[in-house]
Specification:
Number of strands: 9
Number of helices: 22
Strand content: 5-15%
Helix content: 40-55%
Strand order of the largest sheet: 1-9-8-6-7
């Protein structure tokens, strides 16, 4: 059995510091090639641990700019690191300001309708949505590193906050307590987001895949739309639960409360909104009142606020960082994910003390901001200034909005969350992603929002485990006229090498998959022997493991390869050249010294 060379950790060997690896040539093997593989430099266990932790938590080496610098330079670099405004601020010009003013005023035009819609999604007063478009963007403009992100409330986080809090407390019955829980959940979300950034644990949010979010948003949109039947039908007594069966049961069990006048007006206004996308509402004027005294840190409902904060915090981070990276890629600059987490977290902590609920980078605002020609984060300052003027002077211009109109507004806002094309694309590309999407959708509809999300994340984690424990293996064949070997099932022109079986492994070789790989390789051998016997071809003499794609191997993997070699030797399969001369295989026994 020939084995391709692969990296191994240092091990002590008193006689030699080099390992001789013998490789069987798959192309007729006229000559024997011997390659000497040098071991990596010796490191102590502490050095190895330090290096490994550095690779895990600091892959970008964020402190490299501080090396070999004076104390003054390090101080200035530190200011720029924690406050990016000091990095781009000195080079700011009037030309950039003109572009930022235009884009800032453009996205400000979205602040009022989005503020109303998204605040109502969270079952909060509409004015809270506008407050959340004033303070958080100012905080982000000092701490954030994205130039094009538009900060404000977003649909998915608003929707989740509303559903999770409403399952325990109704805003209609206890408005003060509901506001306290909303502000406290926002504070906890900010603490959680900041902690992830400080501890450089941003990879946690990667478990919330795009497929999960597609199904989650669709399910939540359906539930929220069904909840608005209370306003559209004029029902007075309605369930506060956020599952499909209780909501529909409540609708049809109170048919005596249906009002045909409300139904006609509500549906008419809904059709109008879907056609024109215009929104109005009644809002009081004035600046954000302080809300630090409303934070709820003890009592029966503290767990609800904490759970809501963590879930909405993860969702907000997922969208915000995705938005920042998307537009950074378009303009060829980098966004530090961990710094973004801290910026988003700190702005939510500050927002919770100024009558704001959870905010992040908005896809819609950021897209408008980018297309309007934004050059820096100053566009967010301009937007906040425009919202400030609106809060101080323009609120009386808005008229009062009846409940059926607010219901129509919310349905209009959430209907765009159902992405049919994305679901179809998931089905075509990856069935496991489609399964995660459907589990998220059905879980939200029939169980609850947090449990539906947890089920979808569980499916995503199962997918990861499946890829890790059941890696891809394949039989390689030679592309005629070249020294290239490819999967024979995907390259029709690839041909098998007579008397040889070349099996490629495409994953790390470690304890979680070593048994599977052993069984799968033996199956490849058996199937090849059966194929040779049925086609009456020349006897198989050599098995080659192509481990080029094996990035790491542990002791379990090494033991498995040793055992595999012994099993194949018992079946008279060994490494040999075309003249049937024995080839000395890689001495795997010395790996046991590691």
């Amino acid at each position: 059995m020939g084995i391709n060379s692969n990296r191994v950790e240092h091990y002590s060997d008193a006689t030699s510091h080099e390992t001789t690896v013998t490789i069987c040539s798959a192309e007729a093997m006229p000559n024997l090639e011997v390659h000497k593989v040098c071991l990596p430099p010796h490191k102590t266990t502490l050095q190895k641990l330090r290096h490994r932790l550095s690779e895990i938590f600091f892959p970008d080496d964020p402190l490299h700019r501080f090396k070999n610098q004076t104390w003054l330079k390090k101080f200035l670099l530190g200011l720029q690191f924690f406050f990016p405004v000091f990095q781009w601020g000195p080079n700011y010009s009037l030309k950039l300001l003109r572009s930022d003013v235009i884009s800032g005023l453009t996205i400000a035009s979205l602040a009022i309708p989005q503020g109303i819609s998204y605040a109502k999604l969270a079952n909060l007063p509409p004015i809270i949505g506008l407050y959340s478009s004033f303070v958080p963007p100012l905080i982000y403009s000092v701490l954030g590193s994205s130039r094009h992100i538009g900060v404000g409330p977003v649909s998915i986080a608003s929707l989740v906050m509303g559903t999770m809090l409403s399952e325990t407390v109704s805003y209609a019955d206890r408005p003060i307590l509901y506001l306290q829980l909303a502000f406290t959940a926002t504070f906890f979300a900010g603490v959680f987001q900041t902690s992830l950034g400080l501890l450089r644990l941003g990879f946690v949010i990667d478990f919330l895949s795009k497929a999960t979010l597609v199904g989650f948003m669709a399910g939540a949109a359906v539930i929220v739309s069904l909840q608005q039947l209370k306003g559209l039908l004029g029902i007075v007594h309605f369930t506060s639960k956020m599952e499909m069966v209780p909501v529909l049961s409540s609708v049809f069990s109170h048919k005596n409360e249906w009002s045909w006048q409300t139904i006609v007006m509500g549906i008419s206004f809904l059709v109008f909104l879907l056609a024109t996308r215009q929104i109005i509402g009644h809002l009081p004027k004035g600046l954000n009142p302080p809300s630090s005294n409303m934070l709820y840190f003890q009592g029966t409902y503290l767990g609800v606020a904490l759970k809501t904060g963590i879930v909405t915090g993860i969702l907000a981070l997922t969208e915000g960082i995705a938005v920042g990276r998307t537009f950074a890629a378009l303009k060829n600059y980098q966004v530090d994910g961990n710094k973004e987490m801290m910026a988003i977290g700190l702005m939510n902590m500050a927002g919770s003390c100024s009558s704001c609920y959870i905010t992040t980078g908005s896809f819609s605002r950021s897209a408008v901001n980018y297309n309007a020609g934004a050059q820096t984060i100053v566009s967010n300052i301009v937007m906040s200034s425009a919202v400030l003027v609106t809060l101080l002077f323009l609120m009386p211009l808005f008229t009062y909005t009846p409940n059926f109109i607010l219901a129509a507004i919310i349905i209009t806002a959430v209907i765009g969350l159902i992405d049919y094309q994305a679901v179809f694309r998931l089905w075509k590309v990856d069935k496991l992603d489609f399964l995660a999407c459907i589990c998220s959708f059905l879980g939200v509809l029939f169980i609850s929002v947090p449990l539906g999300l947890a089920i979808a994340v569980g499916v995503s984690v199962f997918k990861i485990l499946l890829h890790v424990t059941r890696p891809n293996t394949m039989v390689l064949g030679n592309i005629p006229g070249t020294q290239i070997y490819q999967d024979i099932s995907r390259y029709r022109e690839a041909v098998r090498v007579p008397s040889f079986l070349i099996v490629a492994v495409e994953s790390p070789f470690f304890f979680a998959n070593s048994t599977y790989l052993q069984e799968r390789i033996l199956r490849w051998v058996r199937e090849e022997e059966e194929r040779i016997e049925s086609n009456k071809e020349s006897t198989m003499k050599c098995i080659i493991l192509d481990m080029t794609a094996v990035t790491a191997i542990d002791t379990s993997g090494i033991d498995t390869i040793c055992e595999l070699r012994k099993m194949l030797e018992k079946r008279s399969l060994q490494a040999s050249d075309s003249r049937n001369q024995s080839i000395r295989p890689l001495n795997l026994d010395q790996f046991s010294k590691f």
